[in-house]
Design goal:
Length: 389
């Protein structure tokens, strides 16, 4: 396998510029780019920043499997070799490049091997969403067209698009009901310190209630995403607990913009941030207590990840049936990069449940077709949380 690097781009909006979660591209380019882009929602944009990371040695040295034929060459196999079978030969259902096919086969094979090493997951409690349902979420912030689909389209257009994607996943895997969701970036990292020097902007109650109302229109869940900047989860979580006391509101954490653990003082977006297992465990404990005290169904906690070091000491993350933890592969780029990121940062460091993020724009910059539900269903473990930006 060719060694590869990751490029991060973050756009800053508004007076202090809302940190854009437009994604993180795994790329063979050794020189990260810098650019600026206008954003009509904010009125102006500040210069983008970029950060590069060297590949993990394990990822750089692993040998990929030989390329496989896309399903278009053998239509009859689409029925006989279902992605929900662990004995079937994996097939890409879109015509992909040779490197994409090789990485796909390697990732599927590696995931199947890792299943035997996956930790024992607590028995789900009544009311648990996972693994009996698959969550399909749209991500973003209404204040920005660049942060994802929640702000890119008019509300009715966005919700209709969500309906279409939910239907695609339901058709791809009829055995697993699809639970729609919206993920709002409720605390956004900033390129400027703000009055309190925390490099983050908290969304007000009115905005959170507005997006919650959108979710209710589709019987969807609401996830509140936190980018702490120079703040901490201990400072940011308490003000969101009233929302999390609702049975259909859940939580997400973004290590990319957590500027701690040797990155203190660094502006979010200049370098990739980090969370430790102890941070995740603390948040999980607060959610566990909330579930018990309020007699709520279990909460889902999503942790976005596209590099190993973004979550340190991952094996020390404690599992409890009151909080279902999802490690979400958050990288963007062509198919082979996304497959390898899932293998090297999700499969290789198992926690509990897995997720996969797709970018309508960034994943298709090189004219690659967006990965399909049927393709992603070959991954092992099968991702039960799918996010679109």
């Amino acid at each position: 396998m060719r060694p590869f690097r990751i490029r991060l781009t973050a756009a800053w909006l508004g007076l202090f510029a809302i940190a854009c979660g437009v994604g993180h591209e795994t790329t063979p380019s050794a020189t990260p780019k810098q650019a600026t882009s206008p954003d009509s929602a904010a009125g102006r944009a500040v210069a983008d920043s970029a950060a590069a990371r060297a590949p993990d040695s394990a990822a750089a040295n692993r040998v990929t499997a030989p390329p496989i034929r896309p399903a278009a060459e053998s239509p009859s196999r689409r029925v006989a070799e279902s992605p929900t079978s662990d004995t079937a030969r994996p097939l890409l259902l879109s015509v992909r490049k040779k490197h994409d096919s090789a990485s796909f086969a390697s990732t599927v094979a590696f995931g199947r091997q890792m299943l035997a090493k996956w930790p024992t997951i607590p028995t789900p409690l009544p009311g648990s969403i996972l693994p009996s349902r698959r969550i399909v979420a749209f991500y973003g912030n209404p204040l920005s067209k660049r942060m994802g689909v929640l702000g890119e389209y008019p509300v009715e257009t966005m919700l209709a698009k969500l309906d279409t994607v939910v239907r695609q996943w339901q058709e791809a895997d009829p055995s697993t009901p699809v639970q729609p969701a919206l993920q709002l970036i409720a605390v956004t990292a900033q390129g400027a310190p703000g009055k309190d020097g925390m490099y983050r902007l908290r969304m007000d109650t009115a905005l959170i209630e507005k997006v919650y109302g959108w979710a209710k229109q589709r019987n969807a869940l609401l996830f509140l995403d936190i980018q702490v900047g120079h703040s901490t989860m201990q400072q940011e979580l308490p003000r969101l607990l009233p929302f999390l006391s609702r049975p259909d509101v859940h939580l997400a954490m973004d290590p990319e913009f957590s500027m701690h653990y040797s990155k203190e003082g660094v502006v979010p977006g200049k370098k990739i941030g980090q969370l430790d297992a102890k941070d995740i465990n603390w948040v999980s404990e607060q959610l566990q207590k909330l579930v018990t005290d309020k007699n709520l169904p279990p909460k889902v906690l999503v942790v976005h990840r596209f590099r190993t070091e973004m979550v340190s000491h991952a094996p020390q993350i404690a599992l409890d049936p009151r909080v279902q933890i999802v490690m979400d592969m958050d990288g963007w780029g062509p198919p082979w990069m996304k497959f390898e990121s899932y293998r090297d940062y999700i499969d290789l460091d198992p926690v509990e449940f897995t997720g996969f993020k797709l970018f309508f724009h960034n994943d298709t910059k090189s004219r690659d077709a967006l990965l399909t539900p049927r393709e992603l269903l070959w991954l092992r473990p099968r991702p039960v949380y799918i996010q679109y930006q």
